[in-house]
Amino acid sequence: MEINLAKLYNMNRLDLDTEVKLENIDSKLIKRLENVKIKGYLKYTLSEEIEINLHVTGTMYLDDAITLEEITHDFAFDINEIYNENDENFAKLTKNNQNTLDINEILWQNIVLEVPISKTLNSGLKMQGKGWELNS
Predict the structure, then answer these.
(1) In the predicted model, what is the mean pLDDT of the chain?
(2) 9 is in which domain, residue-wise?
(3) Cα angle vertex 135, ends 134, 136, to 5°?
(4) 40 Cβ partners below 8 Å, 6+ apart?
(5) What integer pLDDT is reported at residue 113 of this predicted model?
(6) Above 70 in pLDDT, residue 125?
(7) What pLDDT was estimated at residue 96?
(8) Which long-range contacts (CB under 8 A, 24 or more apart) does 123-129 make?
(9) Among 36, 39, 115, 127, which is least packed by CB within 10 angstroms?
(10) Could you tell me the pLDDT band of residue 84, with boundaries at 50, 70 and 90?
(11) Comparing C-alpha atoms, which of 35, 88, 91 is closest to residue 58?
């Protein structure tokens, strides 16, 4: 999702309440993402910083740790960050001569932190899975 920085500078605050499509996922753990919704605001402060306050929810599809079947994992987290326009990290997020801020990179960095180390839907020992079965 791209934010027009000129619009943000003129309005000083931009409220967001939308669903975001994150495609081209480069992860071996996350198969796909669905229903990624963001709600919050971006604010241009008097100290020439961009304050980002967002609440993000969605569903990620992962492989079950035991059976390798596809399972879902719901996530919800808050992003509260402040970027200085002269910061090196901020320059990596801007496009088109620094007139557009791409918040998909910020979202992706925070979604990756929400991936569980291991998740399974099986509470007990299951004797079969994707491509295998225990006979004895």
Answers:
(1) 85
(2) 2-133
(3) 100
(4) 15, 16, 52, 53, 54, 55, 79
(5) 92
(6) no
(7) 57
(8) 126/66, 126/67, 128/67, 129/64, 129/66, 129/67, 129/68, 129/69
(9) 127
(10) confident
(11) 35
